[in-house]
Structures are given as structure tokens and as C-alpha cells.
Amino acid sequence: MNEFNFHRPDSVAAALAQRRKSSDARFLAGGQSLLGAMKLGLAAPAELIDLGRVRDLASISADATSVRIGAMATHASVAASSDVRSRSPALARLADGIGDPAVRSRGTIGGSLANNDPAACYPAGVLGLGATIETDRRKIAADDFFRGLYETALEPDELIVAVRFPVVQNAGWVKMPQPASRFSLVGVFVSRGGQGVRVAVTGAKACVFRATAFEQALAKDFSVKACEGVKVAPAGMNRDIHATPEYRAHLIGVLAQRAVAQALG
Fold this sequence. Notes:
Elements: E1 5-7, H1 12-20, E2 25-28, H2 34-39, E3 47-50, E4 60-62, E5 66-70, H3 75-80, H4 82-87, H5 89-96, H6 101-106, H7 109-115, H8 122-129, E6 132-135, E7 139-141, H9 142-145, E8 146-148, E9 151-152, E10 160-166, E11 170-177, E12 184-193, E13 196-202, E14 209-210, H10 212-220, H11 224-227, H12 245-263
Parallel strand pairs: 1-3, 2-3
Antiparallel strand pairs: 4-5, 5-10, 6-7, 6-10, 8-9, 11-12, 12-13, 13-14
């Protein structure tokens, strides 16, 4: 691991001020991805700005129409939140299935979204629910946020402060986990609400994406049966030691049906 300067600001303003002092600084959230990358020599920032003391970033609040989750809220705190569990149980279920207890106690929603791992779970929940990512300077719709492999709409010095999730009528989340890491070999998030039907898939391609064929079928008939026969082409899907593109394409259909069944209770 490279040598670096370490900073621990206690406010968003202080964190941003510290970031502006260096062109080679990185925000540190839970550290589950960044520290591993640094140990492998894949990242070598000269400055680390730890957000752990910025308590305002860890809050979770809700009203009748939405749930707002601070960027530094851990997976464990999201899973345990009564506001999330009552208004968005599928999202609470997603958070509760990330990694293992050690990962869930340190990993954060903001860190996961900024990293945008192709097999991460949170991007599917954000895109599947049509959430809004709030930063220190703007609000970004989920459809505009995820750009590609580890790529997002964030500027280099932009900080996620919270994510606002709309409360929807129905939602379901099912994934096929990779046994060792618990990342999604494929994961499907389905929702029906004010933005219509949304189906988001993670783990299958370089970046989370919406499965429009399933959305169109479910918009006509929100049922498990409506998913039968809907196909997703394997072209462009990931191939690795765990699964072929054809297997991942098949899993999307299977998991979509299970997610709809879960959404319908």
C-alpha cells in the first residue's frame, strides 16, 4: 500500500474544503472496496478523507412518500431501520443480504454507489426504485447516474450526501449470490409505483441496467405469469469462472419471476 495523508473532517463543508486542496485525494466511506484496491496497488491516492466523523451523513429519515438515506448509513443500519423496513421492505432485504456481518457493519450506501461495482446490490435497488442521488451540489436521477464499468455521473470532487427512495406500491429483490463474496452473480430488483414498472439487473453486465422487455410485459400485467417467455439476449453479458453469458441471461428471467412473486407477497 502506498503512503498517504489521512484526514478526518467532522462536517461536509470541512470534507469538501479538504478535497479542494488536492487533486489526488479520495473520499473514504466504509473502505470495503477502496482499501482493498489500495492494497493491490490498483489505487494510490495521496490523500484520504475519512467521512466517518461526519454524523449528518449517516442519518435515515422518512415521510409518507419517500425514504432518505444518508450516504454514510451502513448496510446494517439500513437493514435494521424501522423506516426502511416499513416503507421499503425490499430495500431492507437487499441491504441485509450484502456480504457478511463484518461487511454490513462497515460498508455504506454512498460508498457502494460511488464505486459502482458491476455486481453490487445497491445499484439495482437505486435504479429499480427510481431513486435520486443527492450530492453536495445537485440531484441526479438514477437513470442518469450509472454510466458503465465503475463509472458514474459524479465529478471527481463531488460527494454523495444522501439517496432518496420513493415509496412504491410493490417491490421485490432476489439475487443469486456468488458464494464466497456474496456479490450478485445476477440480481433483479422489481418495483411498481409512481414511475411505473421498473426492473433493474445487476451482475449480468459491466453496469446495472433496466430490463425493458420485462418492464413492458409487467406494465400490462404485473404477475409472475407475465414474465414467462420473456427473453433477454446474452450478448454483452459477463463471462467469468462463475457463469457464462447464456446462464446469466437465463437467470434474469428466473429471478425476475421470483422478484415479482415476492413483490406481490
